[in-house]
Design brief:
Distance between the termini of chain B: 38 Å
Radius of gyration of chain A: 13 Å
Oligomer: heterodimer
Helix content of chain A: under 10%
Radius of gyration of chain B: 13 Å
Largest interface: A-B, 22 and 24 residues
Shape of chain B: globular
Shape of chain A: globular
Largest sheet of chain A: 7 strands, mixed
Structural class of chain B: mainly beta
Strand content of chain A: over 45%
Distance between the termini of chain A: 30 Å
Order of helices and strands of chain A: EEEEEEEEEEE
Structural class of chain A: mainly beta
Order of helices and strands of chain B: EEEEEEEEE
Number of helices of chain A: 0
Number of strands of chain B: 9
Strand content of chain B: over 45%
Chain lengths: 114, 109
Amino acid sequence: ETGVTQTPRHLVMGMTNKKSLKCEQHLGHNAMYWYKQSAKKPLELMFVYSLEERVENNSVPSRFSPECPNSSHLFLHLHTLQPEDSALYLCASSQGGQGHYGYTFGSGTRLTVV
Amino acid sequence: DAKTTQPNSMESNEEEPVHLPCNHSTISGTDYIHWYRQLPSQGPEYVIHGLTSNVNNRMASLAIAEDRKSSTLILHRATLRDAAVYYCILRDQGGKLIFGQGTELSVKP
């Protein structure tokens, strides 16, 4: 257990479904991140939240909608996804954006879109 | 974000030291050198980071060249559990963690 918990671990959803991924950290960190990792590709940064405010959205399609209700929780709401959205979705947190702080990652949600 | 260059893959024998190189010739003065590793079916795990001086922790050592244009992650005695993809990443003040392809390390018994 890393201190960052992601649920569910696995998710299979149809293209017309709506689902949400959840991430929780109790490390006292004030920045949280969503990454996507497709097969055989590097991690891609999707969203950055700092002090519960979204500070970055890396050209992510609107079918992915993040939400950060407080500094401990981060959600990724999914709707009308495509099969190419199947991937490992990773959440991470850090103590601010300063360069000398590391990130703590969760174990990820393995998403399959059918 | 400044780029890093790593070999795609490396092999090691169990219980031998492993030196994983990373080139970062465009590093700026405020960039920290971070190393993470990702075991199969898991999220990345922090290994070590440094700015100018060499660093040691319970997992590994980080040797940073004097001009900071390269660094080496040293695993002192590789075990089968060290087989993973190792990422070398430059992170500046306020910067994000941007991952490259990393080095896939395999460890032979």
